[in-house]
C-alpha cells in the first residue's frame, strides 16, 4: 500500500460514499473533511473518551481541535453525565407527560443568572437563536435586526446575505449564498462590527424606530473593549430594541455561566446551546419575564424539545461544572496553549497571530498561502496522532500528558512549516488537496 492509501483509512472511504448519498457529506459544514484535511481526515469515530478519539481503523488520536465542535467541555463520554442520561433512558426518554427536569434546569439557569426570570428550551444553537429573534420581533412589533457575528443557518440570519453589501464580510462564512431564503427578508439585517460602537450608532440613527433587536456574542475572537457592551446595552434601551446575547459558543467557558456575567452587562435574552449539556443535544433561551412572555403569544413549539435527555444532561453537566470550577480549569489550559503557540512560533521564526478568550483559543498563520500552510499543519499533526486545527478549545480532560504531547508535536510541526516556507515548497509537501477555508459546494 502506498503512503497515500495508508493515510486514507476506512473513514475517508466511508466519507467518499457519504458524499454520494448525503448532500455535503455531513450535517455540519465544520465536520466536512474538506474543512480539515481533504482526502486524509479520519472523518468518522468508533469511540471517544475524555479528549481521545478512535477512528474506524482503531487508531487513537488526542483531540486538540474544537473537541466536539465546542460541545464537550467535561470531556467525551463523561461518567456523571452518562449515568444521568442512561438513567433517563431507562425511565423513558419521551412520554405523553413532561420531564420534571425541565423545571429543575430552569431554576438552575435563573439561579446562575439572577437577572433572568424565565426559560424556554430547544435542542440546537440555530433553533434558540431563531427563537430569540421571533420573541424580539413579537415583543416590539418591529422587523429589523442589528447583528454582529455568526448565529446559525435559519432564514432570519442567512437573509443578511441577500444584501449586496461588502459590510457583511467578516460576519458570514465566505461563499454562503442565500439560495432559498425569501427575498422579502432583504434589508431586515443590519451588520455592525464588534467593538465598533460607531457602526451601531449609525444603524440606530437610521433605523432606531424599526429595530426589533441587537444580536451579538458578548465576546468571540476578541473580548469587548472597555465600555463597549455597556454602551450597546444603553443604545438598546434607548430605542426600545431587545438586546440578545448569543452565548451558544461563549457560554460556560470561563465560569459556570454565560460570559456576560463576567462582564457584568445584562441583556434581555441570552441563548445557550452546545456547551451546556456536554454532547447531548440541548439549548435554552433565558430572559426577562416581560420579554419571555411573548414566547407564548407567538407560536414556538416542537415535539422533541420536550424529551428528557437534554435537560437531564444539562443538569448533570452544570452541576459538575460548578462543583469542579471547570471555567477556571479551561482558562488555565487555554492560557498555557496560547503562550506555547507564541513561544514556539517565535523560536521557529513563524509569524502567527493568537486570539480568542483562553478557553476558545485560535491562531492565524500570517502568510499569503495560509490555506496550504494550515493544511500542512493539520496533516503533520495528524501524523503525530493529534486532531488539530487553528483552534484549540480547552477541555477538562486536557491533562498534563496531553498538553506535553501537543507541545512536543507543535515544536516539530512549526519547524516543518518554517522550513517549508524557507524552501518555498509548502504545497509539494501535501499528500492531498488544500483545505477549504469557507463554504464551497462539494462537486
Ligand atoms: C455563536 C453561535 N451561534 C449559533 C450557532 C449555531 O449553533 P448550532 O450549530 O447548534 O445550530 C453557533 C454554532 O457554531 C455559534 O457559534
Folded structure, characterized:
With 443 residues, the chain is of the alpha/beta class. The chain has 2 domains: 3-76 and 325-429, Aspartate Aminotransferase, domain 1, CATH 3.90.1150; 94-307, Type I PLP-dependent aspartate aminotransferase-like (Major domain) (Aspartate Aminotransferase, domain 2). It contains 13 helices and 14 strands. α3 (101-112) runs parallel beside α10 (309-323), α11 runs parallel beside α13 (400-423) and α12 (370-383) crosses α13. It starts with a helix and ends in a 20-residue tail after the last helix. Pyridoxal-5'-phosphate (PLP) binds next to α4. Residues 124-126, 129, 150-152, 217, 246, 248-249, 273-274 line the site of pyridoxal-5'-phosphate.
Form type? globular
Low-confidence stretches: none
| Main sheet makeup | 7 strands, mixed
Radius of gyration: 22 Å
- The quaternary organization reads as single chain
Q: What fraction, in percent, of the residue positions are helical?
A: 25-40%
Mean of the pLDDT scores?
94
